[in-house]
Amino acid sequence: MSGQGTRDGAGLEVRDAVVRYAPSGRKGSRAAEPTTAVDGVNLTVAPGEVVALLGPSGCGKSSLLRAVAGLEPLAAGSVAWAGRPLAGVPVHRRGFGLMFQEGQLFAHRDVAGNVGYGLERGDAAVPASARAERVAELLGLVGLEGYARRGVTTLSGGERQRVALARSLAPRPGLLLLDEPLSALDRSLRERLAADLREVLVSTGTTGVFVTHDQDEAFTVADRVAVMDAGRLLQVATPEDLWARPASRTVAEFLGYQAFVPADGPDPLGVGSGDGDGGNDRGLAGTGGTAGAVLAVGPAGLLVSDDGTGPGGVPGEVVTSRLRRGRVEVTVLADLGEGRRRLTALLADPGTDAPDDGATVRLRLDPRGCAPVG
Ligand SMILES: Nc1ncnc2c1ncn2[C@@H]1O[C@H](COP(=O)(O)OP(=O)(O)OP(=O)(O)O)[C@@H](O)[C@H]1O
Asked: How far is the CA of 356 from the centre of ligand 1 (A)?
């Protein structure tokens, strides 16, 4: 199939964008103040690139997306597409595709009627015969061959979102804006659809901005991930770089790093204990020994290394163990320097049995599951 995206010019450029909502509540209440949902965001998305906006609920992801779409006015800053400033350009003149959590399909139209909707009128209008061909092509693209005459109310949630995706791609938008398109689906379906969505965006050359609060989804779909908090972008990087070097503790926490230990201080976790692991050489090298450097401990960064009697490491009390995705995850209570709390550890030797609940074990870091912060 030929490229869908226009691939022209500079892609999307968001400069110092601010989105503010007027007060909605009574005087004296919190809602009596204006809300700054997007607070000076700069973001460039190259033609053909897919960027995920990732962040906790209320951080401003949707507001930023809606401002790009033209659904929300900017209080300050600018949005440009392919070098063209979009101030004053209404939603339907921007030529962007939009896809939301609930596909918002037309219930009275069948699948083909929904997918072909955007090709019936306006700038993307094509004759009926060409429309039928394009609809068939799109249904093939999203894995729904043979569904053209199905009523949309008879479809599963996943099928409905596939129809919504096909519909939003039909007019060959240069930029597709997706707001939590998979979050109404259950996890396993979401994982499958996220991979399919990436494939469709890449194969059509569509530039995409994808809003999600799910790290796995962001990492699956996007070339780069923009982590947002309280209206600001904290870090924009490829999934690999983000995971390997989170810019701050907030970013690391949001990615799922579970604990933070000094990278340059005493070594209670036995990383540098010379026990043959070579841990310190690998794990802490990235911090360069900087004073105050911090190491983030990831979900696979903590190992249950023995029965609690050996030297080094810190003691932990086993709360429970469970088999997850083929490996034993042990929930432990331990103090890595910031107080005793629940942490997840893996078995150092996957061949051994899971420890009993209530047992005391020793925990060590696996530097491969840790990352320097900052
Ligand atoms: N129409 C509105 N009027 C007033 N405040 C709003 C409006 N829409 C959003 N907000 C506020 O702006 C902030 C950002 O909201 P936004 O929906 O952009 O966040 P989000 O990161 O997309 O959240 P979620 O993941 O929960 O959808 C929140 O504090 C929200 O309450």
From this structure: 45
